[in-house]
Predict the structure.
Amino acid sequence: MKRLIVQEFISVDGFCADRQKTTGFFDGTYNMVGDELIPYQEKLIESIDFILLGKETYKMFTNYWPDAGGENSKVASAMNRIPKIVFSSSLKEVHWGNCENISLVAEDAVNFVKSFKLNEEKNIIIWGSISLVKSLLSAGLIDEIQLVIVPVSIGKGDSLFPEDFNLFHLELADHKVLSNGVVLLKYNPLKK
C-alpha cells in the first residue's frame, strides 16, 4: 500500500496560511532556510511517485516549477517528472509546462485516495492544499506528517488540522534542527 505523506511549512504559532489564505509570509523561506534543507528535500522527492495537489496549490506550483532551475534544479526536475493529480470540481483542465503527467480529478478526494492507495505500492506526497489535507486527515488516510517550522509568527491564520479534532495523537518519528532555527518534525499519526 502507498504511504501518503504531507509536508507543510508552518509558522511557529501553527499556521500554514495567513488570514487571507495566502502563504506570502513564507516568501524567502528557502533563502532563510539556506542550503541545509535542500539535500533533505532532494532525498524526499526522490522517494515520491505521485504528487497530490488542491486547486490553489496547483495554480501556485504550475506558475513556478515547470520553469524553475538554479539551486532548485534537482528538485524542479523531479517535480516536473513525477505524475501529479489535481483535485478540483471547478477546474476544467490542468497543465504543467510541457509535461503531460498531470491529471484532474473532480470526484470526492477521500474515496479516490482510499482506492488509489490500495492499488499501488509507491509513495504519495501533498504540499500545501490545506482543504485536501484536512479532508484526508479526517478520513484517517495520512500516513506521515512532516512539519517544517519556520521561525515566523503571524498571530492568526489557517491551521493544518481540522477544527473538529478534539484530540489527535501523533508519534514523533524524526526531527532535525537547522542552524537558523528552522525545525523539521516528522510525525506518524497514531491510528485508533
Observations:
- The first strand starts at residue 4 and ends at 11.
- The longest helix spans residues 109-119.
- The chain has six helices and ten strands.
